Amino acid sequence: MAEVRLLQGNEAVVEGALIGGLTFFAGYPITPSTEVAEGLARRLPKVGGKFIQMEDEIASMAAIIGASCAGAKTMTATSGPGFSLMQENLGYAYIAEVPCVVVNVQRGGPSTGLPTKVSQADTMQARWGTHGDYVAIAVAPQSVEETIRLTVRAMNLAEDYRTPVILLLDEVLGHMREKVVMPDPGAIKIIDRVKPTVPANWYKPFEITPSFKSPMAAFGEGYRFHVTGLTHNEEGFPISDPKRTFDKLNKLHNKIMRYVDEICEIETDGMADAHVAVVAYGSVARAAKQAVMMARHRRMKVGQVRPITIWPTNEKKYHEIFGSKSLEVIIVAELNQGQYVTEIERVAPKHVKVVSLARFDSELITPDQILEKIKEVR
Amino acid sequence: MLQKSDVVHQYLRPKKAFPNVWCPGCGIGIVMGCLVRAIDTLQLNRDDVCLVSGIGCSSRMPAYLDFNTLHTTHGRALAFATGVKLAKPHMKVIVITGDGDALAIGGNHFIHSARRNIDITTIVINNMIYGMTGGQFSPTTPADSYATTSPYGNKENNFDIPKLAMGAGATYVARGTVYHVNQLDELIEQAIAKRGFSVVEAFSNCHTYYGRLNRAGDAVKMIEDMKKNVIPLKAAAKLPPEKLEGKMLTGVFLDLEKPEYCDRYQELIDSLKGK
């Protein structure tokens, strides 16, 4: 029989990380993410992995990149202000194509903001936080149990696409305790990065292959390659000519966007004949589910859309989901002043009205609030 | 027998990474030679060597050398290196950094790496100025010296790198100059061989900026002045304080045995096995 446990979201990240094969964690304590670091400090050395508490978040992000280059599966966990500090080195990981997972248990902001209160206000920071041009992958679970699955998935996506992946939780999810049916060992697929098979002197660590993905060697295993944050050629050495600059940045874009159907998980419910759609992710998605149920009991045609992968956006898929003739209004419910609503406006059909249900007073959006909004727009 | 220059050539990436970015006469190339000879003398397997650097003139060095090489963000080389070292503790991890990179933006990582006593060798190439960004003052620019951001003379005090490293907990601390090449070869060799956090300050010349802005002369003049201004630590011990004024002390400041961080972590892992 499957093991059943009572876990909080941050503890679920720890469980997921160990299932996913994490071997290295570097972090700096920050509320409300600290239980991730505390859990891994206890558990990692028992399985031969390494935990290190660095001097700050900048160093934490740097250390996981270094460890990943040396072959480790790596993660750090933080919250808003720490996530801001990580952005420079996060950009390094994007351009140098280094797999790693960054957990952001969101709190209220800007700045120190509300350390123990819920928010989804880092939604745009997860997409556009670092400088330059790149594609971010971010996933947002809605329950503790799903946090385990999505932690593993974030690690798998990082390894598969050689890129950082953001696991975006919120304070409520991080601290809430729920019943969890633990996954059977071996039931979740684990993806490891593809290693090169060519002789060391043929190896091009940033080769632009037809699939745009390239194998990644580890330091210390015979492939002596160069890694830099400077724009580089396929061998990893700095370049500045327009042609190869284009090729490099084009690779960063295509290695993700070409696989958007595989990467993007979107859950829908009752959208076939819906007049109103409620879009929500993370903790808010649960209130949305309840609100949609309440609305249906009142014979209102309402459907739910839950982005699980919140970045990148699968435009084609959204065109399908929102394409039915019956759909008139989309409500985007989120714990910020309206960040994701701009993205949904971008992919919604012209004839559909998109409205924002934004709450940013540090409390969760309730099902009643969403129901009220449904009644208002209907 | 191989000439010194031949040893260096064996470790370069001539087809991939050259020409280099350094000004003619720059001392960083001399330090690169010293590093390579130290590695060669120690007969390290080059697959087991990882060179990590931050940003700046000196931080371009790893790209030119055929090892595992990681050129990172400004000031963060030691933090990246910590990840490499913990993930692959058998590797010799060597950080190449400049005075601004290591001690201004990277000052926090420098003191904490020393405090942890992680087995990383840090070579701080000190030319007392920011070269790559065009001659701004750094944490080692002497008071009253001129830089593009201290046009009326520097009003800040400068770090003494060996004292800082010793205070923070390093286990091997030394200083050499690019004039005293044979000594610098040895200091770097000893630092790499040391199990623990080791620091070598390699005093170098930036005639392009420091020299020009402070009328210190060209590369040859600046390097010759190192000979005049240096007193070895052992000789200094016998001299009265007034004879040491304005002089630079070189040699081994500290060399002691202390438990190393990766070793201690491995002991923890071993002690938890089967529990």
In summary, what is this structure?
The complex is a heterodimer of chains A (378) and B (275). Chain A is built from 13 helices and 16 strands. With 378 residues, chain A is an alpha/beta fold.
Fold and architecture overview:
The complex is a heterodimer of chains A (378) and B (275). Helices cover 37% and strands 21% of the residues of chain A. In chain A, the strands form 3 sheets. In chain A, strands 2, 3, 4, 5, 6, 7, 8 and 14 form an 8-stranded mixed β-sheet that branches. Chain A is α/β, with parallel strands linked by helices and 378 residues long. Chain A starts with a strand and ends with a helix. Chain A is built from 13 helices and 16 strands. In chain A, strand 15 (329-334), helix 12 and strand 16 (353-358) form a beta-alpha-beta unit. With 275 residues, chain B is α/β, with parallel strands linked by helices. In chain B, 42% of the residues lie in helices and 17% in strands. Chain B contains 14 helices and 8 strands. Chain B has helices spanning 4-10, 14-17, 28-41, 61-64, 77-87, 99-105, 107-116, 161-168, 181-193, 207-213, 219-229, 233-236, 241-244, 261-272; strands at residues 49-53, 68-71, 92-98, 120-126, 172-177, 198-203, 230-232, 248-255. In chain B, helix 1 (4-10) packs across helix 3, helix 6 crosses helix 7 and helix 7 packs across helix 8. The model of chain B has no long low-confidence stretch (mean pLDDT 96). Classes of the chains: A alpha/beta (378), B alpha/beta (275). At the A-B interface, helix 3, helix 4 and strand 10 of A face strand 2, helix 5, helix 7 and helix 14 of B.
